[in-house]
Design goal:
TIM Barrel; PLP-binding_barrel; binds pyridoxal-5'-phosphate; 6-stranded parallel sheet; 9 helices
Length: about 260
Amino acid sequence: MTGSEAVAAQVDARTAELATNLSALLQRVDAACLAAGRAPDSVRLLPVTKFFPAADVAILYRLGRREFGESREQEATAKVAELPNLVGQGAESDEGLPDVQWHMIGRLQRNKARVVARWAHAVHSVDSERLATALDTGAQTALDAGERTGPVRVLLQVSLDDDPSRGGVAPAELARLAEQVAGSKALRLSGLMAIPPLGAESDAAFARLATLHTMLLAEHPGATELSAGMSGDLESAIEHGSTCVRVGTALMGARPITSA
Ligand SMILES: *Cc1c(COP(=O)(O)O)cnc(C)c1O
């Protein structure tokens, strides 16, 4: 076997692995929707590709996926730039491929908001007024520079355990933050996100999140997204109204190191 044949064989093997995992996962999501009495197309699967190379994202792209979730700014920014070359299309803009939507799902520092605003279709982890302000400024700059064409969709990350170190706005502060984002020119309030507290019953956490989402929708009917559920708890999240499950491990395999 030549070197390039060996590389091609590796790509084929990874493609087969990801295709198998993907179809199992889509069946899991469908089954969970059925069990919850919800339409299968009411829940989107967001592949989380953090810690995996852009080559894997390219394989998922060829398998038909167009949305990807990343949690670390530097890693994501590099992948966004690399993907167009890997799938054989020149980048049209800093947003990367025109038909791909990148989601920032991890904790975001204010000084990274400008960079993320170049490529992020949505940010799931907005949890403070200062971060929202920085993201709005970054998004406006990106709009003015022609680096993006629409507002950054914002999901407010809610803390369900009152542990500030894990991120998320306290439920008592949610309404005020939602008002701010809804009034920001370069942002669009899309919904809520949460990660269940470590060691907690995910069912109870997702039930609480659903209540907060209902309250938010009463004030902001357009904020329909509920980003909840990961590899281990997506059935419970779907039962409680998730519209977007963020799945890493069950699709990509184990990460080399785990992240917060
Ligand atoms: C890594 C990550 C996920 C995916 O978690 P898995 O358990 O690997 O499916 C989902 N959401 C966020 C915010 C993450 O950082």
